Queue: 4 jobs
Job 1
Amino acid sequence: MKSFQFFLLIHKINLMPREYPNFANSPVYKVYATGLSLCGVKCLLKIGMLPIPMAILLVFYQILPVFCQTNLSTEATPNNYPAIFQLTPSLSNNTKKLKLKDIVFLVLANNIEIKNAYLDRIVQRGELAVAEDKFNPDFTPTLSLSTNKLGESTNTNSNIDAKVVMKIPTGAEISFGWSGNTQINNINNNSFDQNLQLSFRQPLLRGGGIRVNKASIELARITEQSNIISLKSILADTITKSILAYRDLLQAQERVKIEELSLKNAQESLEVTKALIAAGRRAPVEIVQEEANIANRRVSLLAAQNSLESSKLALLAILDIDKNTNIEAADIPTVERVQLDLENLKQTAVKNQPSYLQSLLNLESNRIGLILAKDERRWDLNFNVDISDGNNQDNDARAGLTMTRTIGDLSLQQRVEQARINLKKSQNNFKDINENLDIELQDQIRNVNLSFSQLELARQATQLSKKQLDIEQQKQRLGGRTRVIDIVNFQNSLVQAQNAELSATIQYLNALTALDQFLGTTLQTWQIKIEGGSEGGSERGRE
């Protein structure tokens, strides 16, 4: 009689999909169909009414159609990238999907710090032009007109002066002047006078020599190179900051997807547990653990959503665009091992590393500063020549030497000592930077390789956690001996593994970006060119 009742119950459940189509895809139906079918077959075997081979076929007949109606959760992802990086379609039509190259373009176009850096470049280029104009002649014209009346006499005077001054690299200064004076009065006593003057001054000790006189131009050019390096550093730092913020946004997006999927799995597991409890195969108390797990998953999802909004605002602040813009990271990161060669990277760093290049410029600048300080301590000995010629006077030519010296001025010697100390300090700094370049570069390479190793381990951990959960869930659906607490723990382990893989992926990509910034090749990577740099081209950065 009991076996007949089991057959009727199995038959009734098999008819449910025809009467209630939506019920066929629910986990409750799967559990009922599976559990009751197994119970019925077990009872028939026990009373001897069913042979063992027939029982096996009957079990497969009852179970297989149920689980073939929908795909299992272990179905493979239809691409070669981890499922945690698959982008979900946006729910808002106003969402701006931005790729990484879009972020770089926007930060170059809108960032305030970059705009101010380019404004500073206008002044800096003007300062270099002034310094390089040192040996070009200066022309100064002067025109004056005056009139006066004394009694019946009215006089009108006009003066025209022109002066040209030019410095030459030896330190000499050549001055040429011409002046003309015209007087007109009403008594017809008109006159015109003109005068020519030529002077030459050549320092023989202090201020003399090509090296000393070209030092100011060399210092200006060194300053210009330093300004270009500073501009590159600002660009590279800002671009790197925007890239890291973009990946933070990407990580926050993927974390939300992980938490949503985890919550969905927990809800499905709760439905299965309810079905098992209704079938009498689980104790009602076990539902408490499932409900607590769902509550925890909702808390984690809320935290992930809050982190996502925070990441959006942080990126919008760097891009300096409307804070109400709804943005979404649309770039799927490509994670591949990058082979790094220490010697090649060291040569690249020597050519592009900002700190190394700045130390070289400081060293050269302090060498020139010591030359100028020693020159100020020398005697002031000048050779002077003056020639004048006027139409109302004889020619006048003079030549002579002038020598001066300030006695007792200790500041001259103090400036020499200060310049010598500055040079020594810059030499020490250059030596230290050069020695640490290898150490820092090796540390950067080690960090990149370690990050990729962690990523590989995290991928393996995710796959194993997923397999563990799938096995336990299948055992639960088949009515096997599995505890609810075990499924909850496996679900939590999978979430942790997925988040760990996501963090390891972002960490590896950030390590490569940090290496790029350390080498000073960020602008080359993004094909950004500035005027006066090694890349050449237009100064306004662009992708």
Job 2
Amino acid sequence: MDSIAIVGGSPLVGEIPISGAKNSAIKLMAASLLTDQPLRLTNMPRLADTRFLGKLLTRLGANVDEREGEDGSETVLHTPEIMGAIAPYDLVRQMRASFNVLGPLLARVGHAKVSLPGGCTIGARPVDLHLKALEALGAQIDLHEGYVYAQAPRGLRGGHIAFPFVSVGATEHALLAAVLAEGETVLENAACEPEIGDLADCLNAMGAKVEGAGTSTIRITGVSRLGGATHAVISDRIEAGTYAVAAAMAGGETRLTRTRPELIEPLLAKIEQAGAKVTRHADGVTITRNGTRLKAVDLETSPYPGFATDLQAQFMALMTVAEGESRIRETIFENRFMHAPELARLGADISVHGGEAVVRGVERLYGAPVMATDLRASVSLVIAGLAAKGETVGGWKKSCAPAAPTFAASRATGASTSGARARAPSPAGRGRRRPGGDQCRLAGRRGQDRRHPLGCGRAPPDHRLQSLPLGIRPQGRSARAQRPAAGVGAQRPGAAAAPRRPRRRGQPAFGRLRTGRGARRRDPPAVRRRWRTALRSGMHRRRPGGCLNRLAHPAHART
């Protein structure tokens, strides 16, 4: 899916089960490299990231079996032997979290070669804390040609690791490596996210000894080997928070099940302050808003248990229609306001100053073509489109694709989403774009796209005329039949139809270039000037026979 279209104005009503957390599932999959016994993970999300990591694990020697079990989707991973401790760039670059296979490989076989993950659009995400943590456990690290060469010939040894700042990825990576290290390892200033506790619970079920997960100090006592286990992936708090914001944005009553309210408590508190009703249950939460306008609320992102940075873009979309002025401060990533200009295309009033955005609520948003830059930005635009008047058409990069099914699949979950629909890409991927930038969505015969007339096929009459330079008209009997009632050069409302002047013998049609002997003499000067300009600028076209065709608009000229 490379685009999605939303017709806003419909409330969300229904029940939505929350799937397993992606951020936890991919680290649990990497943990399967630590044992030669099968690891069974239930409540697994089916995402592009898990598929990418599955390909990498298969290359390293794992057997990855995805199936449907009694509790929903599950994955069984079994790595009886490491076939090769090399993670190449073409696989690691598809997902940053795959870099976390370095620690398990190093802990199990004593060496590894893993590509650096590369950059990220939302800001700098270096892996230096990961490498320093592994060096503190006795690993020898060498960087060469974009790869990390790590060795621990005598195995890893326990150590004391004090992170200079909280890092979820570095905490998880150190935890994965330290469970097989000899002696005790202490992690200070560790991340406290629920996914850390979920990883520790799975490792303990496999035979590890991890204490204090979920606090700032974690103690790990190394063991000689780990066994197999069955573990249920924790529910995705970012998915739950996204649906909660969508329900508050569109109105109606939506119940989220198979999750724990305490996982998104900072967000629920902000939604309550904004004026929506929040009802907490043992297995979920219900969001209700019927007609009342939201109120502006300030927020600041911070590590867990603070407001999650992965929910900042969604909450900004919510504040665009709130009464008053809200200030949103981002403290985790420096480039996480890239969605603000796209929200402004829908009518939002947002000004960004460094790490702070000021959102002044408006009465209504209006649909428009938008483009997402990252995963959370894409879903924030979907949320805004749910409340916008008219149609919002969004284009998504491949890296943003997981956000699109969030609402496209809402019908299957039971929510009433008649106002949202997904649009599949054009058959054979041959869609064109108009000069204004919006995509042509005119389906032709045999499922092929109908494209622009000048150099790329036929189009409806109004599109044909708008594509031509001012004053130029298609010629011939078929062109006269296709002239629209309104558009460029159309008759004004209420004006009398002008009688058509008969063309004298030998007089050329306006806009047509005569070729052959005496062409310059018989063509009007205005026509000759147009063609001289066209020939100099390369805007002309040639028919298969070689004669010059009509003028092409510069926006459609192909080199």
Job 3
Amino acid sequence: MTIENFDSELSLTLLKRGKDYFRNGQITDLEEKRNGIWTALAFGSDEYEVEIHLKGIEVEDTVCSCPFDGLVCKHAIGTMFAIREETSGETSRAKRKKSSNPKKKLNKEEKLELIRQKAEVPVLLDILFREAIINKELCNQLFIRFSNLWGESTLKIVLKNIKASLEKAEHIGYRDYHASSKVANELFMYLEEAKIAFERQDFELAFGIPMGIIKMAIPVFYSVDDSSGELSDVVYSSIRQIEEWMVEMPKESELKRNLMKQVQDLVQSGLGSGFGFTTDLFDLVCELTESVEDKVWLISYSQARVTNELVNGELPWESKKDIQNLVRVLTICGKEKDANDLRLKYRDKIHDFLLELYKKEMVQGNSEKAKVFIEEGIENPGYSNFNNEWRLKLSNWYLEAGDRKNYLDNLFKAVVNMNLTQANLKELKSKMEKGEWTDFRMKWLGVCKGYKPKNNWDPGMKSSLLELLLEANEIEAMWQEVKLLGFSFLEKYHSFFLENYQAEVLERFKNYVFSQMDQPGSKDRKTYQTMAHYLVKIKKLGGIEMANQAKRDILAKYKGRPALVDELKGV
């Protein structure tokens, strides 16, 4: 797999999610740390650190701090899209060089491109139509794309196919895990058709497809096993797609008004309320408040959602989004005072409100008032992960005031619980004066080394310890720490240990492979793919005979597993 063709080697579902991360700007701080080793941050439900190892254009390894246990996660895929864009000039040169050498082997993508450029059109059409007779998916795509030739509505065909896909997935009134995953992939294909339609400004088809998915897919959640989350992803993607495109539509567009009325009707009907979809649809309405003609209904509905969710006058955590929506609605509808009163009232519960108040005071130059809000953020126990964010603001406040002692004290309190990355390490050092970093680092190292996790929870201390040791090139000390930690730490930092500890590194990788086979429920292709991945990695790290012997031992121990044999063929 290369950085040029990885999107032809991986699953369509993961590629779609990874590309969304890249397109939506959720991949940040992309940087090539060392030759061929790229790092980035991926922002989703949490912040994840991603590392991609390249050898030339070959993708040797991908590492991510997310809990995904497959070969390549969506965060790594998003990062690879970002790397490919970053290096596009270099990759183009590599392609030209490769295609100029007729003796060099072409990959699948290059072969198809050569056929597209050189093959005769009648020959291609003959192959296409013969395949379409037996390939239902291809046939449907042709019918959708060219339905105007026989005067049939393309949208009508797509909606009919969506309905058929959902009905076909049902078995005795229920859709199991495999059926829901299959139908999700089909619906994602229709969403891609919607994107093509939007690009050619066929807005009726572009909006009609995601609206059809929302209306027809949500009701089936009462009788479906969506434990993979793939069907939910289609619905959420449809909602996000409508929101993204609606913003681009003219404010006075008749189509926009009609769509908003449809979404409003779905919200009022309570469609999917037991699964959270009503909330997402209402979020869409609030995001595009200006397009809602009936502002009275919107304010009334927003207020009712908040009122109905109060418990003994208190706002439950899960209702925070409704308060935020109400503030947004009131602001857009010209009721700024009511909106500000709500921000003040709920600033101890909703981080964004306190942040807005703080920023407002800073912009107006009221630094002492801003400091009051900072201190509220630090002291508020409900903010959890945001306490450090406010502590950093306080340290910066002291920095601006020229108080170095309080700046360094508060900075230390903030960063000591952080999961240190190379990016924020560089930023920290840039703000240090001569001699400050040495003392700061030694103090931080002492805390990390002496930290004892409570309830097996480590707030980034071990990661920070390893990064601090690496920053000082204390590789031996790093190795002693990594030996006591889980495999994920070894996998992230193994390249630094190969020179002095290659045999032990390879042994740990091999043991990890065998440990995967001993896990409950390990008789699945995903586990076999993971094993194959690490056996190949062992070979690349210099343990060719070790990998070959491990492969022989696995095949001898776990006989009668054709999927396992199939996955290990490439090792």
Job 4
Amino acid sequence: MSKKKSSAEAKAQSASSSAQLSGRSGSSAQADPKAQSVKRSLSRSKDPDFDWKWNFRFVSLVTALTLLRVLFAMTAELKYEEAYYWLYSQHLSLSYFDHPPLVGWLIYISTSLTNDAEFWLRLPTVLCGAFTLLLIYLLAERIFNPKIAFIAACIAAALPAFELYAIFTMPDAPLLTFWCLGLYAGYRLYDEENKNFWLLLGAATGLAMLSKYPGLLTPLAALLTIFFKKKFQLFKCWQFPVSIILALAIFSPVIIWNYQNNWVSFLYQGACRFGEATSLLDKFGGSALNISALATPLGIIFFAFCIWKCFRHITEEKWFYLFSAFLPFAAIILAVMSVRLVQLNWPLPVYPALVIMTAAILEEEKVWNKWSWRTVLGVIFIPAILISLTPLIVAIKPFTALNRVNEIKGWDTVGKEAAIAINKTDDPSRCFIAGNAYGEAAEIAYYSKMPERTLSSNVFGDYARSFDFWSPKGAYQGWDCIYIVTERVKSDGSFVPLEPFQLDFIEPCFESIDTNIKKITAYNGGKPLRRYRIYTCHGYKGIPCSPEESFEQFIQKTNKRGILTK
């Protein structure tokens, strides 16, 4: 009996040894316990309890963030871009000069169902922020597992890149949401070979383009992965051409509006934007500052390190898809950087795929068990969280150290003063308001509750974005005007206009201007925040170009004087 048992054990050991040798020759990953452990940690879970735990944590995270965002939405006054996009909703159109219309349409729906309070104006953005995190979680969970998905959501929640555009109502909020929806649909299309996801991808692309023009690149990750991984059969279906038609149909209002307006928005966001002169310092120094501001400088270095670690996986299909979702767009941003200043929000579509890749690498490296890594993560993400929370802190508590750059307080003051000044004129029914620049004009329009009678620097022929379309040339002639110049506080306590201003330049536009100028100072925490100079002007005469010069010649002349900026 002992000999039989010994013989059986010997055979078992021999079989085990043969299997190990076979594993080494066939697949090194199977023979390497560490590689197997890494592969399991990055794989989708089959344990319901494991999934429930991370799903519950994700729901708790989104709930807490949404409550904080709601608190901000109810507390802070509008940032000037938000007030400007609110004016979109007051001038409903197929599209607008500087952006597609979706942000204005969403504001219109939300405020029409309720009222124009700041909370309702910001509600679409709060919802977009929650859905963006949900889509990042769902994509990461499908590619990897719920734990990595939760880590990715936490990274996204900590980054100013996501948080700032989940509280301020701008076109970037719906762009991010539908960009992420496109990434999710594209991966499911490729991974499951379910051709119906072409339709969801087409709809997401159309809605992303209806938010901002870079939405055109939404399907790029799916297209590149299908092409380079040679799944050409996915193109051979009726859903593929229909998805293109669907995207174009959703985007068609923008095409129609541009056709009706000599393609002005396409030209502005294309050739004109790249034709704007910026210095070498702006191109590289300013662009680098803006790019790093959304992730913090240490965060940029950290992400670069994670990208380098990810390159060893690039041949794997799921990693190739994530690389395709961010690398081409990142290359475009770097190319733009060589030509002009990259604005703060332009790199946003890079981040959804990047945070998922970063989360996977952190899990692969098992950083949670290493004190050195914990320290590094704390140094990177604690400042990022504090930056993300700064707007909420400023909205709730007077933070006078930031008074010079505080854009979410003090506008209610000037709006009320503008309404009072109009009522003091001889005929309030024939009096309009004008702000020295489009941003301050939008704030005045919102807080005076007179959007239909608020203009900007277009009253004397300067470029004022969509105000040029909302106020036809020659309107309001013979009316009085309450003209408001906004001044920021300098470090020495003095005030300087936000935009260049000279009184002698607007004088030809009116029959007379009262010499009694009212000055109103807005305070925050007992210290000056902003000052407003209020001019009462009588008898608007229109744009002061002479009969022998064209409007275009007048604009060229004013720009040469160096008074007006575009």
